[in-house]
Design goal:
This protein is an all-alpha fold and 307 residues long. It has one domain. Strands 1-2 form a two-stranded antiparallel ribbon. The C terminus is likely disordered.
Length: 307
């Protein structure tokens, strides 16, 4: 019964990071067109973090946290929420949401390269093919003159690639780091830390802070969904999965997120999907498949390994 319950939780968690995170590109794009990016991220993560800690308190989860766990939470917050997410949202001002999701789909490639340099293990044939296809797909994607129309767009793409690299390293770090045992406490702490840092960044860049009552209806809805679904539900599921399955398996969300983001960007924001983008995405996601489908060791629920 316990094993079945764990398997169900894993399935629900994967659905969360697949579907919900695929839709957050649209919600962030809508919000960042009206709100300053660091202010947006500060409100989103601060609110979600406080709510998560309150839920953890209500359910009586332990708040015993060591100094090492606080430090590791701060490092995870830096790579995930500040660099990997908030700076990524800043770049969304210059890049379409579906296009951004395709850039983010390179995460498994970055994870593989990071693990290669950290573990010093030779790449398998499937990995080499995957890396090659990933690079080809990325070149096709970013070489479109009709999409890369300005220096701001090029800057946005380069910044996003840096953000994906940071997020990828964060995933590798969290899978091995000593963090608070409860996922609500761990995620809530990371979000509160991010909220404080982002508030400092927002004031440093002299962003204008406004009341939620003055936001448009679309922005209010987008922010609510980002906080509840994208923050509390999906990010908690993500942290949970990093502890019970392999980092590379968690990175398979890169298959589904771009498809959902491309469709929602096309349907709701009238974003263009070029033939070259479709070809590039097919090649890129095929590369992701080769990377994540190779023979590897996966952690099971009990922390042991199996092939």
């Amino acid at each position: 019964m316990k094993a079945n319950k764990s398997q169900i939780l894993i399935i629900i968690a994967f659905i969360s990071i697949y579907v919900i995170w695929g839709s957050t590109y649209l919600f962030n794009k809508v919000a960042v067109t009206e709100l300053p990016p660091f202010f947006l991220a500060c409100i989103r993560f601060s609110t979600a973090g406080v709510l998560m800690l309150m839920i953890a308190k209500i359910f009586g989860f332990s708040f015993k946290i060591t100094k090492k766990q606080i430090l590791n939470s701060a490092i995870a917050s830096l790579f995930f929420l500040i660099l990997g997410n908030s700076v990524f949202v800043w770049a969304l001002r210059y890049v379409d949401s579906g296009f951004a999701a395709l850039i983010a789909s390179t995460q498994p490639l970055f994870v593989l390269l990071i693990l290669r340099f950290l573990d010093r293990k030779p790449m398998q044939k499937k990995s080499i093919i995957g890396v090659f296809l990933g690079i080809v797909g990325m070149v096709l994607l970013v070489s479109q003159q009709e999409l890369v129309t300005s220096r701001e767009t090029i800057l946005g793409i380069l910044v996003m690639l840096g953000c994906v690299l940071g997020w990828s390293y964060g995933g590798v770090f969290v899978s091995k780091a000593d963090l608070p045992k409860n996922f609500l406490v761990s995620t809530g702490l990371q979000m509160v830390i991010a909220g404080v840092v982002l508030a400092i960044l927002s004031f440093s860049f002299q962003e204008k802070w406004t009341s939620p009552l003055s936001w448009s209806t679309n922005v209010q809805i987008s922010m609510s969904l980002l906080i509840i679904l994208g923050g509390i539900v999906a990010f908690t599921a993500f942290n949970y999965l990093l502890k019970v399955v392999s980092t590379e398996k968690v990175a398979t969300s890169a298959y589904v997120n771009p498809v959902i983001a491309l469709f929602m960007g096309w349907y709701f924001l009238d974003e263009k999907i070029s033939t070259q983008s479709m070809i590039a995405s097919a090649i890129l996601l095929t590369g992701v498949y080769f990377i994540t489908s190779r023979k590897r060791k996966i952690k099971n629920i009990n922390g042991t390994s199996k092939t």
